[in-house]
Amino acid sequence: MGLAVAIIGSGPAAFYTAASLIAAAPDCGIDIIERLPTPFGLIRYGVAPDHEHTKNVMKAYSRTALSPQVRFFGNVEVGLHLSLDELRTMYDAVVLAVGAARDRPLGVPGDDKQGVIGSASFVGWYNGHPDFTDLAPNLATKGVVIVGQGNVAIDIARVLAKTPAEMARFDLCDHAAAAIDASPVADIYMVGRRGPIEAKFTNVELREMGHLENCNPVVEAGQLPATVEGEMSDRDRRMKDKNLASLRSFAETPPDPAKKKRIHFAFYAAPVEVLGGATVEGIRFERTKVEGGNAVGTGQFFEIPCGLVVAAIGYRSATVKDTPFDERQGVVKNDDGRVAPGLYAVGWIKRGPTGVIGTNKVDGEHCAEQVVADLKPTGKAGRPALEALLRQRKVRAISFADWQTIERAEIANARPGAPRRKFPRVADMLAVLEEARAAAS
Ligand SMILES: Cc1cc2nc3c(=O)[nH]c(=O)nc-3n(C[C@H](O)[C@H](O)[C@H](O)COP(=O)(O)OP(=O)(O)OC[C@H]3O[C@@H](n4cnc5c(N)ncnc54)[C@H](O)[C@@H]3O)c2cc1C
Q1: Residue nearest to atom 18 of ligand 1 (CA)
Q2: Which residue has the higher pLDDT, 399 or 228?
Q3: Residues 89 and 108 in one domain
Q4: Poorest-confidence range of 4-18, 223-237, 313-327?
Q5: For residue 11, how far is its CA from the centre of ligand 1 (angstroms)?
């Protein structure tokens, strides 16, 4: 019998680890344990709905899930249905691949007002994550401020700016599509404390802003430097040059008066206070300048009226009970992925919320090498022990075949031309399985 491995989480880091383990130790048994009934983590619930091509990786992950060595246990939450310590007694190796789904708070007075939302929640809401279905962000407002200037901020701005026709071919959730369509939002501000060179968006995403049906990008020419200065790799410099060129073209192109929405790129502004009573009415910023790569306040302030503030300033990992957590970095304490004997970390819980999907592949490969180098099978029961425990606790685990039944229903329910219509509630997913079971009996 080979190694018994449990992977907690089913995002990219989990699937790359499983695929690498299959290659490195073909006789191992791998159980992927996911708190939601649905696999794929942020590929399903983070990547923007109108970037469907990015989600193609789900096909490769599905092939891994269908390998004979692998079993998927969806709807099973470690820390709720069973503990990490229990898993460690059942498996030779346990791999933490739980991601970093918590928002970093804005950290200014008033950030607890109704109408201040973190990007994980907002993105989860429009992507149909069951935790955020009832978020009800205040879109009865003309102004929305997104704090942050990375690709997540751009995704949010674009989803708010696109027309129903532009979104029709995608799987934007019905509740979000209806709320955005009904919203009077006209001005979307994407505000960063530093300048255009320091902004983190990539050029493909930035350029897209110049091709929206009903939205003009707005950039103050005076905020753009003449050239890209500072120490950086040639690759980064090329990207920054392209970003600067895109921003300059936005600044120089007269706005199309037929377009009713505007995305304002606002640089050199740090949030200092969210304004209003119980609910948000605006946000005050201090003008900054960049010194040695850092934003420094200038003592000049301005305000932007808005009814919704989305903080897109990064993520933190959720703590996993029974693991040492590095509060400062927001990740599980680990030595290049090793957490404790037989316990490993991969993906965002290991190294924080950075990089692209493929960055997790390197983690997965490395983790598989470590597991194979560190451990010999000890005869731990693995899967049968997990199944017995879940049965005993009456946990309704979702198999990969169950997920495929849910997926078929999502595809069958899709709008014409759209890839799927997600079920935004776990109860509805479970009802699909009950119906399928009743139909089969
Ligand atoms: C909004 C957004 C958009 C993005 N868009 C892109 C993009 O377009 N292109 C790109 O290259 N990258 C993109 N990324 C980055 C990419 O999604 C991440 O690199 C990747 O998802 C990280 O993988 P992960 O497996 O570490 O975490 P995740 O994908 O978050 O997966 C973690 C999984 O663990 C599960 N889990 C958590 N706790 C438990 C528990 N206690 N028990 C069981 N299961 C648990 C979660 O439900 C989740 O399914 C985006 C990220 C975000 C936030």
Answers
A1: 357
A2: 399
A3: no
A4: 313-327
A5: 5
Give the closest residue (by CA) to ligand 1 atom 53.
46
Characterise 347 by phi-psi region: left (phi > 0), alpha (psi -120 to 50), beta (else).
left
The pLDDT, as a whole number, for residue 231 is 84
**Per-residue confidence at 380, pLDDT binned at 50, 70, 90?**
very high
Q: 29-33 and 4-8 as β-strands: parallel, antiparallel, unpaired? A: parallel
Of 194, 390, 212, 147, nearest in space to 297 by CA:
194
Domain shared by 148 and 272, yes or no: yes
Distance 249 CA to ligand 1 centre (A): 34
Residues 337 and 293 in one domain: no
Ligand 1 center–CA 407 separation, angstroms: 19
The encoded tokens of residue 255 equal 């706005």
| Separation of CA 153 and ligand 1 centre (Å) | 16
pTM of the predicted protein model:
0.96
Which domain-ending residue is among 315, 347, 371? 315
Dihedral sign for Cα 31, 36, 40, 42, please. Answer: negative
Tell me the residue range of the domain where 43 lies: 4-101+317-398
Residues 55 and 158 in one domain: no
Question: What confidence tens digit (pLDDT) does each residue in 418-438 have?
Answer: 999 999 999 999 999 999 999
Q: Which residues contact 153 (CB under 8 A, 6 or more apart)?
A: 119, 146, 147, 190, 201, 310, 312
162: amino acid identity, one letter: K
How many residues can be counted in the chain?
A: 441
Does the residue 412 lie in any domain? no
- Count how many domains the chain has: 2
Mutation test residue for ligand 1: of 44, 45, 47, the one with most atoms within 8 Å of CB: 47
